[in-house]
Amino acid sequence: MTETPATAGNSREVLVDVDQVEVHFPIKRGVVLDRTVGHVYAVDGVSLRIERGETYGLVGESGCGKSTLGRAVLRLEKPTGGRVVFDGVDLFGMKGEQLRRMRRRMQMVFQDPLSSLDPRQSVQSLLVEGMRAHGMDTGRTATDKRLRELLSAVGLPSTSLRKYPHEFSGGQRQRIGIARALSVGPDLVVADEPVSALDVSVQAQVLNLLEDLQAELGLTYLVIAHDLAVVRQIADRVGVMYLGGIVEESTSDDLYEEPLHPYSKALLSAVPVPDPTVEDEREQILLSGDLPSPAAPPSGCRFHTRCPWRQSTRCDTERPELRELKPGHRVACHYAEDIRDGRLKPHEVSADAVNPADFGDLDITSAHPA
Ligand SMILES: Nc1ncnc2c1ncn2[C@@H]1O[C@H](COP(=O)(O)OP(=O)(O)OP(=O)(O)O)[C@@H](O)[C@H]1O
Ligand code: SF4
Ligand SMILES: [Mg+2]
């Protein structure tokens, strides 16, 4: 983890400015007419800024729009609204060759290296491919040197060059995926669930590698994960997503110490705390109802159908904006101050309330790293 923006003052430069981004996928019906009968509001008005050299973590339940947002930032997904400014340039206004050249500076690391690496290509060919596409394969000696440097940076021997993806373990394959992303010298790396396909014992090694590479190369990361422990280890700042929107954003320490949005509070209340005295005194926040469909998101506050603090006045009708409650800590809840200061109490939960630990595949059982 690098120095956080909060501690660094305002001197850090914004590398990625995401402004009211929307990605709405049309739902089509009918073979002949192909009518649009609705939309999946996968990303619905997200604004965030990623500063140069920091790691921004995105967390949230399965289907809340994390991957779609990551892909939109790289312009791999066509946005239906808003804009992304990368290093001062509006990406959504770019096309063709201009966009292709810009892509060198923004690379992606995928969850499953086996399906993202072509099994028929040797490691050498996989690594050279991107360099060639961007005119960086300038001669045999220089390219050989570069390939060896890349492998050494990700902790693989140079003999790996002649091998094929299936000859490596999962962790080694993810190292190849990282080397491939780095081969073209990007500024930004979007890593979508970079360690969730790996054994727990290997996860920490790959996260440490990402952190070392960041320090060495001055990289900026957007890390997407459903595992709160992963985000806690690697992210300087965290955005919590719920149904296509960011509901809370703060430094990772702040979020884990004092979550302010009811949804984040519920997620973190289910995380076991190593201290048994603290653990006994903690109250778990249960949520009623299932995650609504992103094709029919609730009106007003998207979380109102499950929120234990829901108020009849504004929650069902008015969508809360992200507001700064304290420096660097933004929350999208009309009543965040009243909840924080204990002026509002949570309602009794209904019989169908669930422990957030049972949410889909969101791993909240290990958010406190050993
Ligand atoms: N190409 C697409 N066409 C239609 N709907 C899509 C498409 N891609 C994603 N979606 C839908 O958009 C919503 C958000 O999906 P997304 O993959 O971004 O979620 P996620 O937060 O990354 O989930 P997970 O943790 O499971 O990876 C989901 O309801 C998904 O089904
Ligand atoms: S705005 Fe209302 S429903 Fe939404 S999180 Fe706050 S209290 Fe809950
Ligand atoms: Mg995803």
TrEMBL record:
<dbReference type="InterPro" id="IPR003593">
    <property type="entry name" value="AAA+_ATPase"/>
</dbReference>
<dbReference type="InterPro" id="IPR017871">
    <property type="entry name" value="ABC_transporter-like_CS"/>
</dbReference>
<dbReference type="Pfam" id="PF00005">
    <property type="entry name" value="ABC_tran"/>
</dbReference>
<keyword id="KW-0813">Transport</keyword>
<dbReference type="GO" id="GO:0015833">
    <property type="term" value="P:peptide transport"/>
</dbReference>
<dbReference type="GO" id="GO:0005524">
    <property type="term" value="F:ATP binding"/>
</dbReference>
<feature type="domain" description="ABC transporter">
    <location>
        <begin position="27"/>
        <end position="268"/>
    </location>
</feature>
<protein>
    <submittedName>
        <fullName>Peptide/nickel transport system ATP-binding protein</fullName>
    </submittedName>
</protein>
<dbReference type="InterPro" id="IPR013563">
    <property type="entry name" value="Oligopep_ABC_C"/>
</dbReference>
<dbReference type="Pfam" id="PF08352">
    <property type="entry name" value="oligo_HPY"/>
</dbReference>
<dbReference type="InterPro" id="IPR027417">
    <property type="entry name" value="P-loop_NTPase"/>
</dbReference>
<keyword id="KW-0067">ATP-binding</keyword>
<keyword id="KW-0547">Nucleotide-binding</keyword>
<dbReference type="GO" id="GO:0055085">
    <property type="term" value="P:transmembrane transport"/>
</dbReference>
<dbReference type="InterPro" id="IPR003439">
    <property type="entry name" value="ABC_transporter-like_ATP-bd"/>
</dbReference>
<dbReference type="InterPro" id="IPR050319">
    <property type="entry name" value="ABC_transp_ATP-bind"/>
</dbReference>
<comment type="similarity">
    <text>Belongs to the ABC transporter superfamily.</text>
</comment>
<dbReference type="GO" id="GO:0016887">
    <property type="term" value="F:ATP hydrolysis activity"/>
</dbReference>
